[in-house]
Amino acid sequence: MNKRFNGWLLTFISICFLISQPALGEEKNDGYNGSKKFKKRQAMEKVKQGDQHFLPMPLTIVGAQVNGKPNFQTVSWVSFANWDPALIYVSISKTNYTLMGILKNKTFSVNLPSSDMSAVIDYIGTHSGTEVDKTDIFEVFYGDTKTAPLIKECPINIECKVVKTIDEFPSNYMFIAEIVQVHVGKKYIKKDGMLNTKKLDPMFYAFYDMKYWKLGKSVGTSTKEWKKYKK
Ligand SMILES: Cc1cc2nc3c(=O)[nH]c(=O)nc-3n(C[C@H](O)[C@H](O)[C@H](O)COP(=O)(O)O)c2cc1C
């Protein structure tokens, strides 16, 4: 009887332990709450830094068809702008060769590279199509837009059609574009249809230290993480 009870107790403790563990691939994290309250733990002394661009940014490759050939440039000023219709924006310097193609065709691609592509990202981000031929760097394919060159080597390709061109700022054009189609490498899609972020291995750019960074571990799940929050 005692032995059976001990067995049940052990099973119960094991289940409790497993439930308390973070999901596979997630880092153990108390959401900065743990024993202390949020405000006390987060407060810190600040140093003013003027108008520096201090947010780490995702790294992408923007492609456009320029003078009948595909051209690519590195872009970190990129994000989503609207839910439905799905809109994306990119900010492109007025001096860039890629800009000519976007202005002419009103289409472009946003390609997500993996972190093992840092060298080529740096090359296309420091060499202009006006000086070097970037046509043969990647294996290119075309999708629904017909004119936005897409990169086969990148895990994700987003085809974009410009819906608004903003030319109100001194250094950059801002293009807001409709997402026409998204292509994802088969091997990055999990059995449940979700993307495997770890495998995608995206890269980030920190302007302030000029370094390329890769992703660490997940520290929580959106819409569930708030449950750890204590005022
Ligand atoms: C890490 C990194 C991020 C960059 N982000 C942007 C960006 O968001 N927008 C932009 O216009 N140029 C950006 N650039 C600069 C262009 O990629 C660069 O000027 C490129 O040579 C332009 O190529 P193109 O003249 O062939 O279009 C970035 C460069 C690097 C290295």
Written overview of the protein:
- With 231 residues, this protein is an alpha+beta fold.
- The chain has a domain at 57-214: Electron Transport, Fmn-binding Protein, Chain A (Pnp Oxidase, Chain A), CATH 2.30.110.10.
- It contains 5 helices and 12 strands.
- The protein has a 7-stranded antiparallel β-sheet. It has a 3-stranded antiparallel β-sheet with strand order 1-11-12, with no helix packed on it. It has a two-stranded antiparallel sheet with strand order 7-8.
- The protein is globular.
- 22% of the residues are buried.
- The model has no long low-confidence stretch (mean pLDDT 90).
- The structure holds flavin mononucleotide.
- The site of flavin mononucleotide (FMN) has 20 residues, from strand 3, strand 5 and helix 3.
Task: List its salient traits.
231 residues, alpha+beta, Pnp Oxidase, Chain A, three-stranded antiparallel sheet, 12 strands, binds flavin mononucleotide
Concise synopsis of the structure shown:
This protein has 231 residues and is α+β, with helices and mostly antiparallel strands.
Describe the protein's topology.
Elements: H1 2-20, H2 38-42, E1 57-58, E2 60-66, E3 69-75, E4 78-82, E5 87-93, H3 97-105, E6 107-112, H4 118-124, E7 140-142, E8 149-151, E9 156-166, E10 172-184, H5 197-200, E11 203-206, E12 211-214
Antiparallel strand pairs: 1-11, 2-3, 2-6, 4-5, 5-10, 6-9, 7-8, 9-10, 11-12
The structure holds flavin mononucleotide (FMN).
Flavin mononucleotide (FMN) binds at residues 71, 73-77, 91-93, 96-98, 122, 125-130, 205.
Which stretches are poorly predicted, pLDDT < 50 over at least 5 residues? Answer: none
Helix content: 10-25%
Largest sheet strand order: 3-2-6-9-10-5-4
Order of helices and strands: HHEEEEEHEHEEEEHEE
Q: Can you tell me the CATH architecture of the domain at 57-214?
A: Roll
- CATH superfamily descriptor of the domain at 57-214: Electron Transport, Fmn-binding Protein, Chain A
Percent of residues in β-strands: 25-35%
**Shape type:** globular
What ligands are attached or bound here? flavin mononucleotide
Query: What is the number of helical segments per DSSP (H or I, 4+ residues)?
Result: 5
- Major sheet attributes: 7 strands, antiparallel
Spatial gap, N to C terminus = 46 Å
Structural class: alpha+beta
At the fold tier of CATH, the topology name of the domain at 57-214 is Pnp Oxidase, Chain A
The Rg value, from CA coordinates, equals 23 Å
The beta-strand count equals 12
Task: Give the overall pLDDT as a whole number.
Answer: 90
